[in-house]
Amino acid sequence: MKEYLVQNNRSNRLVPTRSSSRGFTLIELLVVIAIIAILAAILFPVFAQAREKARQTTCLSNMKQIGTANLMYMQDADDTAYPYRHNVPAPGYGIATGRPRVIFYNQLLDPYIKSYAVWRCPSNPNAWVNDNNTVPRADGTFDSYGGQNSYGLNNFVFNPRRSGGSDTGITFAEIAAEADTVMMVDTIYYNTLPRNPTRLKGDPVNFDPIASGYGSYWRNIASTTWPGNDTDAIAQGKKRHQGFVVTLFADGHAKAIPYDRLVNDLTNNPMNSIWDPWKKGPYVP
To answer: What is the CA radius of gyration of the chain?
Structure first.
């Protein structure tokens, strides 16, 4: 406490006076803390949404680059889509004969992309892609491991063992509506359970890529072949982007589609689904 001298007008003499300074009270501090907490509760979700929107933009850019590579590959391969995997020594997978190595679809596009980062969604940091330079076996052959990238193929287009069809992917001419046919989507690492799009309601968070395996793809891995009339053709989609799935279409454009709309389209539009490249009637969006 400080003491000062002031003049008394009546007696014309100096008298002492006191002036005190005080800090914030507990109530005032609590009010300030509450205001900060309210502002944080309002702003943090906004920042998180903005960050995720930026990640979605990067993911869309990745998909568009892959889409361009898809078109370049098909142009160089007589307009034929690549199969998702060449699994030697099983015959008929359309890449090579004998047992030179195992090749995954991301490796087939390497000459057109030349960047492994394109295969990793920024919202899927655990994803990884391996190159095709592995140690050869004693007999001179070697396997090439595709890794677990962030994007999976539409099995209807890229399935190499279609009943009644060729052992490669379909030709571009077979796709009835390129702008309305899914080629690739956000995915997570497959599991060992068959998934029907009518049953795929929740977000399968328990199957993120954490172990070694093959490139991720939307397909039914319960069987080695997929008959053309089988609707049990997708595995695990991933709604990484605030309930949306980044989707690449056959004409090379990409956009984010609501998760439920994507996985239920085969059920809701059985004759004209965006999953079906042959389209049995006019597409109904």
So the answer is: 30
